[in-house]
């Protein structure tokens, strides 16, 4: 799955002017993932209705139309049940499971499903960069909650990451 390098374009309601959504901070596995994650997304805020259209608009159109996302209730307590994206509506499902606490599942109808780590918006840039890289490693064996727990543990987390089979952020 690849990200598109240019921002999605659209027309703001009522003014007829073109605008560009900011590029999402997104890193996807370059090939087929062999782990529990297919990449990571670092939203700028916790308002899913503001962040999701940019994420969806940046995904490669060959993956199909994103029809549904599943997010954790704890991370997105105010998430709406539907979000408008360019040209369509996305259903938002909420999950109480611990595995969903820091993840988003992106469903593209019959084409496929991708599991992304959601890096908390207030995460420091250096830590976020390491998490984006680690989660997009096709050989990453760690789940979203485990990656975040390692990031919170600081330098010891890197040793643990490598001892659990990860190649370490590059």
UniProtKB/TrEMBL annotation:
Pfam families: DUF5994. It comes from the Bacteria. This is DUF5994 family protein. It comes from Streptomyces tibetensis.
């Amino acid at each position: 799955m690849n990200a598109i390098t240019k921002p999605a374009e659209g027309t703001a309601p009522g003014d007829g002017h073109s605008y560009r959504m900011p590029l999402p901070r997104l890193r996807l596995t370059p090939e087929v993932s062999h782990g529990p994650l297919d990449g990571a997304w670092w939203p700028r805020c916790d308002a899913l209705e503001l962040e999701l259209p940019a994420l969806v608009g940046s995904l490669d159109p060959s993956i199909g139309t994103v029809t549904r996302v599943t997010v954790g209730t704890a991370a997105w307590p105010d998430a709406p049940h539907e979000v408008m994206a360019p040209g369509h509506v996305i259903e938002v499902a909420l999950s109480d499971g611990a595995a969903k606490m820091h993840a988003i599942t992106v469903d593209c109808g019959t084409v496929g499903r991708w599991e992304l780590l959601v890096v908390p918006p207030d995460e420091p840039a250096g830590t976020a960069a390491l998490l984006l890289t680690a989660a997009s490693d096709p050989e990453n064996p760690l789940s979203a909650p485990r990656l975040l727990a390692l990031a919170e543990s600081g330098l010891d987390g890197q040793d643990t990451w490598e001892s659990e089979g990860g190649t370490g952020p590059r």
